[in-house]
Amino acid sequence: MAESVQINFGGFVPLSTVDWRGKSVCVVFFRGCPVKCWYCQNQSILTGEDRRPVEEIAELIRSSSLLISGVIFSGGEATMQPAALFALAEYSKSIGLSTGLHTNGVFPDVIRTLIEKRLIDHIALDIKAEWNLYTVRGKERAVGKQVKESLTLCTAACHAGTLPHFEVVVTLFPGYGEEVMTISHDVAPDIDLVLQQGVFVGIRPLDLNNLKEIADRLGRTVRIRTRSDGEIRYEGNRSRGNAGIGKR
């Protein structure tokens, strides 16, 4: 790793069993994110500065390596800092760890480079709204085209075998039914679609049954993720796939 590379650091979790299905991983959080998600659970690291040399973070990864099989790069948005992301992904691979990325997909060129250089084994693409509703922090500039490009390239790489695992995650709150129907149409049937329970102070979260009702209307197998029930694979009632989804 080049000594001049720095990361705007957001935090580190030495051991997690919930951030990559079936794996024990450490999680590196990158500070900063261009997308304005009102429900983000990591508000404290969306802005601000905490510059560290990547060697310092590599040492944190190394210190967890006996307990884990992989590393997740999250945020914030890790693809905002490509030099640090590439350096840490290369280091992680060099010590035998699998690498994963949680991303909003706003920087498809960074994702493309990760895939082309075989630096990434797993991508969870967090699609937050219909394409035309995406905006970036401070500019109110639509970025749905970039997110859709990320979806397309990750799907193609997964089908080609150059991205071993890919999933699309949609965080749902009451009233978001129409959005997930639109998103679902763009996600290939053989790509995992995760319906994730959104949690925010003052809003009643959708429970497992609520999410199953939404899944029934999508007409496809999904994974449902809630805090109380963990993650389940749900086949659902596919006969309801054309019934539409009403607002809550």
Brief descriptors of the model:
single chain, 248 residues, alpha/beta, TIM Barrel, 25% strand
Q: How can the largest sheet be summarized?
A: 10 strands, mixed
CATH topology assignment of the largest domain: TIM Barrel
Portion of residues within helices: 25-40%
**Low-confidence runs:** 241-248
Distance between the termini: 50 Å
CATH homologous superfamily annotation of the largest domain? Aldolase class I
Task: Walk me through what this model shows.
The protein is an alpha/beta fold and 248 residues long. It folds into two domains: 1-163, Aldolase class I (TIM Barrel, Alpha-Beta Barrel); 170-248, no CATH class. Helix content is 28%, strand content 25%. It has helices spanning 54-64, 82-94, 108-116, 144-160, 177-185, 208-218, and strands at 6-16, 25-30, 51-53, 70-75, 98-103, 122-126, 165-172, 192-197, 222-226, 230-234. The chain has a ten-stranded mixed beta sheet, with helices on one face. Strand 1 and strand 2 (25-30) form a beta hairpin. It starts with 5 loop residues before the first strand and ends in a 14-residue tail after the last strand. Residues 241-248 have low confidence and may be disordered.
Blueprint of the fold:
Elements: E1 6-16, E2 25-30, E3 51-53, H1 54-64, E4 70-75, H2 82-94, E5 98-103, H3 108-116, E6 122-126, H4 144-160, E7 165-172, H5 177-185, E8 192-197, H6 208-218, E9 222-226, E10 230-234
Parallel strand pairs: 2-4, 4-5, 5-6, 6-7, 7-8, 8-9
Antiparallel strand pairs: 1-2, 1-3, 9-10
